[in-house]
Amino acid sequence: MGVQNSGNEYPLHMLRELGLSHLEAVVYSTLVSLGPSPAREVSQASHLAREHCYEVLRRLENKGLVKVQLGDHSVYVPAEPRTAVSLFISDLDARYASLRDEAYEVGAWLETTKPSQVPESHNHSERRVQLVFGKHTLLEFERELNACKTEYLGIIAPETLETATGIRILESLARATKRGVAVRVLTGIVPARKELLRRLTSEFSIRTNAVAGRGPRFDVFDRSRVMQPMHGPTAEEGEMEAICSESPALVNGLVAYFEELWRKSRPLTKRKVVRAMVCV
Questions:
Q1: Using one digit for the tens of pLDDT, what is the confidence trace for 70-103?
Q2: How far apart are CA 166 and CA 160, in angstroms?
Q3: Residues 135 and 43 in one domain
Q4: What is the number of structural domains in the chain?
Q5: Which one of 168, 203, 244, 260 has the lowest number of neighbouring Cβ atoms within 10 Å?
Q6: Nearest to 46 by CA among 62, 28, 67
Q7: Residues 31 and 134 in one domain
Q8: What whole-number distance in Å separates Cα of residue 7 and Cα of residue 269?
Q9: Could you tell me if 134 and 220 are in contact, meaning their C-beta atoms sit under 8 angstroms apart?
Protein backbone atom coordinates (compact mmCIF):
# COMPACT_ATOMS: atom_id res chain seq x y z
CA MET A 1 0.00 0.00 0.00
CA GLY A 2 1.15 3.55 -0.63
CA VAL A 3 1.10 6.45 1.79
CA GLN A 4 -1.70 8.96 1.45
CA ASN A 5 -1.11 12.30 3.13
CA SER A 6 -4.12 13.55 5.00
CA GLY A 7 -4.50 17.13 6.14
CA ASN A 8 -2.09 19.91 5.37
CA GLU A 9 1.24 19.04 3.74
CA TYR A 10 2.94 22.01 5.48
CA PRO A 11 3.26 20.35 8.94
CA LEU A 12 4.71 17.22 7.34
CA HIS A 13 7.19 19.36 5.44
CA MET A 14 8.26 21.08 8.67
CA LEU A 15 8.67 17.74 10.45
CA ARG A 16 10.96 16.66 7.63
CA GLU A 17 12.93 19.91 7.99
CA LEU A 18 13.32 19.12 11.71
CA GLY A 19 14.97 15.80 10.95
CA LEU A 20 12.26 13.20 10.34
CA SER A 21 11.97 11.19 7.16
CA HIS A 22 8.75 11.43 5.16
CA LEU A 23 7.39 8.16 6.56
CA GLU A 24 8.41 9.08 10.13
CA ALA A 25 6.58 12.40 9.79
CA VAL A 26 3.44 10.68 8.47
CA VAL A 27 3.38 7.96 11.15
CA TYR A 28 4.18 10.30 14.06
CA SER A 29 1.55 12.88 13.05
CA THR A 30 -0.97 10.07 12.52
CA LEU A 31 -0.25 8.60 15.96
CA VAL A 32 -0.61 12.04 17.59
CA SER A 33 -4.04 12.44 15.98
CA LEU A 34 -5.12 8.92 17.03
CA GLY A 35 -3.66 8.85 20.51
CA PRO A 36 -2.20 5.61 21.98
CA SER A 37 -2.96 2.90 19.43
CA PRO A 38 -1.83 -0.56 18.26
CA ALA A 39 0.28 -0.76 15.14
CA ARG A 40 -2.67 -2.15 13.14
CA GLU A 41 -4.68 1.06 13.60
CA VAL A 42 -1.67 3.27 12.87
CA SER A 43 -1.02 1.26 9.71
CA GLN A 44 -4.61 1.64 8.51
CA ALA A 45 -4.85 5.37 9.34
CA SER A 46 -1.55 6.19 7.66
CA HIS A 47 -2.26 3.88 4.68
CA LEU A 48 1.10 2.21 5.24
CA ALA A 49 1.80 -1.51 4.95
CA ARG A 50 1.92 -3.18 8.39
CA GLU A 51 5.55 -4.35 8.13
CA HIS A 52 6.68 -0.87 7.07
CA CYS A 53 4.66 0.70 9.88
CA TYR A 54 6.40 -1.49 12.50
CA GLU A 55 9.83 -0.44 11.15
CA VAL A 56 8.95 3.27 11.23
CA LEU A 57 7.51 3.00 14.74
CA ARG A 58 10.79 1.38 15.90
CA ARG A 59 12.76 4.28 14.42
CA LEU A 60 10.49 6.79 16.15
CA GLU A 61 10.94 4.89 19.42
CA ASN A 62 14.73 5.16 19.04
CA LYS A 63 14.34 8.91 18.59
CA GLY A 64 12.27 9.23 21.76
CA LEU A 65 9.11 10.21 19.89
CA VAL A 66 7.19 7.01 20.62
CA LYS A 67 6.92 4.70 23.63
CA VAL A 68 5.64 1.12 23.56
CA GLN A 69 3.27 -0.27 26.18
CA LEU A 70 3.79 -4.02 25.99
CA GLY A 71 0.90 -6.45 26.42
CA ASP A 72 -1.19 -8.93 24.52
CA HIS A 73 -1.57 -6.19 21.95
CA SER A 74 1.26 -3.66 22.16
CA VAL A 75 0.14 -0.05 22.17
CA TYR A 76 2.23 2.78 20.75
CA VAL A 77 2.09 6.08 22.64
CA PRO A 78 3.27 9.30 20.91
CA ALA A 79 5.46 11.77 22.75
CA GLU A 80 3.65 14.93 23.75
CA PRO A 81 4.12 17.69 21.14
CA ARG A 82 6.04 19.84 23.66
CA THR A 83 8.37 16.93 24.35
CA ALA A 84 8.82 16.38 20.63
CA VAL A 85 9.70 20.05 20.11
CA SER A 86 12.34 19.85 22.87
CA LEU A 87 13.83 16.76 21.22
CA PHE A 88 13.88 18.50 17.83
CA ILE A 89 15.63 21.56 19.29
CA SER A 90 18.24 19.44 21.10
CA ASP A 91 18.95 17.56 17.89
CA LEU A 92 19.21 20.80 15.90
CA ASP A 93 21.63 22.28 18.47
CA ALA A 94 23.84 19.19 18.22
CA ARG A 95 23.71 19.28 14.42
CA TYR A 96 24.55 22.99 14.40
CA ALA A 97 27.54 22.50 16.70
CA SER A 98 28.80 19.67 14.52
CA LEU A 99 28.32 21.70 11.32
CA ARG A 100 30.04 24.72 12.87
CA ASP A 101 33.10 22.59 13.73
CA GLU A 102 33.07 21.14 10.23
CA ALA A 103 32.87 24.67 8.77
CA TYR A 104 36.00 25.67 10.72
CA GLU A 105 37.76 22.55 9.44
CA VAL A 106 36.70 23.27 5.85
CA GLY A 107 37.85 26.89 6.17
CA ALA A 108 41.25 25.78 7.46
CA TRP A 109 41.53 23.21 4.67
CA LEU A 110 40.63 25.79 2.01
CA GLU A 111 43.39 28.04 3.33
CA THR A 112 45.89 25.23 2.70
CA THR A 113 44.79 24.99 -0.93
CA LYS A 114 45.70 28.63 -1.64
CA PRO A 115 48.95 29.27 -3.56
CA SER A 116 51.88 29.35 -1.14
CA GLN A 117 53.74 31.90 -3.26
CA VAL A 118 52.64 35.11 -4.95
CA PRO A 119 52.70 34.65 -8.73
CA GLU A 120 55.36 36.59 -10.61
CA SER A 121 52.70 38.74 -12.28
CA HIS A 122 51.51 40.00 -8.90
CA ASN A 123 52.84 43.00 -7.08
CA HIS A 124 55.85 41.92 -5.01
CA SER A 125 54.81 44.32 -2.23
CA GLU A 126 51.84 42.06 -1.47
CA ARG A 127 52.17 39.94 1.66
CA ARG A 128 50.46 36.79 2.85
CA VAL A 129 47.16 37.27 4.68
CA GLN A 130 45.60 34.19 6.22
CA LEU A 131 42.49 33.49 8.29
CA VAL A 132 42.69 30.53 10.68
CA PHE A 133 39.83 28.86 12.55
CA GLY A 134 39.16 26.70 15.59
CA LYS A 135 41.97 24.58 17.01
CA HIS A 136 44.13 25.59 14.04
CA THR A 137 44.37 29.08 15.60
CA LEU A 138 46.42 27.88 18.56
CA LEU A 139 48.41 25.52 16.34
CA GLU A 140 49.22 28.43 14.00
CA PHE A 141 50.36 30.54 16.97
CA GLU A 142 52.71 27.76 18.10
CA ARG A 143 53.96 27.29 14.53
CA GLU A 144 54.74 31.00 14.20
CA LEU A 145 56.42 31.04 17.62
CA ASN A 146 58.56 28.02 16.73
CA ALA A 147 59.65 29.85 13.56
CA CYS A 148 60.41 33.01 15.56
CA LYS A 149 64.19 33.66 15.68
CA THR A 150 64.83 36.81 17.69
CA GLU A 151 61.86 38.64 19.23
CA TYR A 152 58.24 38.16 20.28
CA LEU A 153 55.91 41.00 21.34
CA GLY A 154 52.41 40.23 22.53
CA ILE A 155 49.37 41.72 24.21
CA ILE A 156 47.40 38.98 25.94
CA ALA A 157 43.95 39.60 27.42
CA PRO A 158 43.86 38.90 31.18
CA GLU A 159 40.77 36.71 30.70
CA THR A 160 42.78 34.50 28.34
CA LEU A 161 45.37 33.89 31.06
CA GLU A 162 42.63 32.43 33.24
CA THR A 163 41.97 29.64 30.70
CA ALA A 164 43.83 26.46 29.78
CA THR A 165 44.68 28.10 26.44
CA GLY A 166 46.37 30.98 28.29
CA ILE A 167 48.53 28.59 30.31
CA ARG A 168 49.52 26.79 27.11
CA ILE A 169 50.53 30.11 25.53
CA LEU A 170 52.68 31.10 28.54
CA GLU A 171 54.39 27.70 28.53
CA SER A 172 55.15 28.07 24.81
CA LEU A 173 56.64 31.52 25.43
CA ALA A 174 58.82 30.17 28.23
CA ARG A 175 60.17 27.50 25.87
CA ALA A 176 60.85 30.12 23.20
CA THR A 177 63.11 32.07 25.57
CA LYS A 178 65.25 28.97 25.99
CA ARG A 179 65.92 29.17 22.23
CA GLY A 180 67.15 32.73 22.65
CA VAL A 181 63.95 34.55 21.66
CA ALA A 182 63.47 37.85 23.51
CA VAL A 183 59.90 37.79 24.82
CA ARG A 184 57.90 40.77 26.06
CA VAL A 185 54.28 40.42 27.17
CA LEU A 186 51.70 43.05 28.07
CA THR A 187 48.55 42.10 29.94
CA GLY A 188 46.00 43.42 32.41
CA ILE A 189 45.85 42.66 36.11
CA VAL A 190 45.13 38.97 36.68
CA PRO A 191 44.80 38.26 40.44
CA ALA A 192 44.30 34.53 39.90
CA ARG A 193 47.50 34.27 37.85
CA LYS A 194 49.63 36.84 39.67
CA GLU A 195 51.96 34.34 41.32
CA LEU A 196 52.39 32.38 38.10
CA LEU A 197 53.23 35.57 36.20
CA ARG A 198 55.71 36.59 38.90
CA ARG A 199 57.49 33.26 38.52
CA LEU A 200 57.60 33.68 34.75
CA THR A 201 59.38 37.04 35.07
CA SER A 202 62.56 35.02 35.50
CA GLU A 203 61.93 33.67 31.98
CA PHE A 204 60.75 36.80 30.11
CA SER A 205 59.59 40.40 30.60
CA ILE A 206 55.98 41.00 31.66
CA ARG A 207 54.30 44.35 32.22
CA THR A 208 50.76 45.15 33.27
CA ASN A 209 48.53 47.94 32.06
CA ALA A 210 44.77 48.40 32.38
CA VAL A 211 44.64 49.47 28.72
CA ALA A 212 46.19 46.14 27.71
CA GLY A 213 43.16 44.44 29.20
CA ARG A 214 40.71 46.51 27.16
CA GLY A 215 42.50 47.23 23.90
CA PRO A 216 43.49 45.12 20.90
CA ARG A 217 45.25 41.81 21.36
CA PHE A 218 47.95 40.62 18.99
CA ASP A 219 51.23 38.73 18.60
CA VAL A 220 54.22 40.04 16.63
CA PHE A 221 56.94 37.63 15.55
CA ASP A 222 60.40 38.98 14.60
CA ARG A 223 58.74 42.31 13.73
CA SER A 224 57.79 40.80 10.38
CA ARG A 225 54.63 38.78 11.02
CA VAL A 226 51.54 39.50 13.09
CA MET A 227 48.69 37.38 14.39
CA GLN A 228 45.56 39.13 15.65
CA PRO A 229 42.72 37.19 17.36
CA MET A 230 39.20 37.93 16.14
CA HIS A 231 37.43 36.10 18.97
CA GLY A 232 36.59 36.92 22.57
CA PRO A 233 39.31 36.35 25.19
CA THR A 234 37.51 33.38 26.76
CA ALA A 235 36.43 31.68 23.53
CA GLU A 236 36.43 27.89 23.43
CA GLU A 237 39.05 26.29 21.21
CA GLY A 238 36.47 25.52 18.52
CA GLU A 239 35.33 29.18 18.44
CA MET A 240 38.81 30.68 18.00
CA GLU A 241 39.80 32.53 14.84
CA ALA A 242 42.56 34.94 13.92
CA ILE A 243 44.07 36.93 11.07
CA CYS A 244 47.74 36.32 10.22
CA SER A 245 49.54 38.87 8.08
CA GLU A 246 52.98 39.89 6.87
CA SER A 247 51.85 43.38 5.84
CA PRO A 248 54.67 45.79 6.79
CA ALA A 249 52.19 48.62 7.43
CA LEU A 250 50.14 46.51 9.85
CA VAL A 251 53.20 45.06 11.58
CA ASN A 252 54.87 48.47 12.02
CA GLY A 253 51.65 50.04 13.31
CA LEU A 254 51.11 47.34 15.94
CA VAL A 255 54.77 47.42 16.99
CA ALA A 256 54.55 51.20 17.50
CA TYR A 257 51.37 50.75 19.55
CA PHE A 258 53.03 48.05 21.66
CA GLU A 259 56.17 50.10 22.33
CA GLU A 260 54.14 53.15 23.39
CA LEU A 261 52.02 51.06 25.75
CA TRP A 262 55.13 49.25 27.05
CA ARG A 263 56.69 52.55 28.12
CA LYS A 264 53.54 53.45 30.06
CA SER A 265 53.21 50.07 31.78
CA ARG A 266 54.40 48.80 35.13
CA PRO A 267 57.00 46.00 35.21
CA LEU A 268 55.89 42.85 36.96
CA THR A 269 58.80 41.80 39.12
CA LYS A 270 59.49 38.66 41.05
CA ARG A 271 58.43 38.91 44.66
CA LYS A 272 61.35 39.56 46.96
CA VAL A 273 61.73 37.35 49.99
CA VAL A 274 62.69 39.41 53.02
CA ARG A 275 64.56 37.43 55.64
CA ALA A 276 64.40 38.70 59.19
CA MET A 277 67.63 38.78 61.15
CA VAL A 278 67.47 36.92 64.42
CA CYS A 279 69.68 38.29 67.14
CA VAL A 280 70.81 35.86 69.79
A1: 888 889 999 998 998 888 888 888 777 777 767 7
A2: 5
A3: no
A4: 2
A5: 260
A6: 28
A7: no
A8: 76
A9: no
* Cβ neighbour number for residue 234 with a 10 Å cutoff: 13
Residue 11's nearest CA partner among 20, 3, 148 is 20
Instruction: Determine if residue 222 is left, alpha or beta; phi over 0 gives left, psi from -120 to 50 gives alpha, anything else beta.
Output: left
Is residue 245 within 8 Å of 225, Cβ to Cβ?
yes
28: helix, strand or coil: helix
Euclidean distance between CA atoms 157 and 1, whole angstroms: 65
Domain that residue 231 falls in: 124-267
CA angle 235, 240, 242 (to 5 degrees): 130
CA angle 63, 17, 40 (to 5 degrees): 50
pLDDT tens for each residue of 241-280: 888 999 898 899 999 999 999 998 888 765 554 444 444 4
- Do 191 and 139 have their domain in common? yes
Q: Which residues pair with 153 in a beta bridge?
A: 184, 220
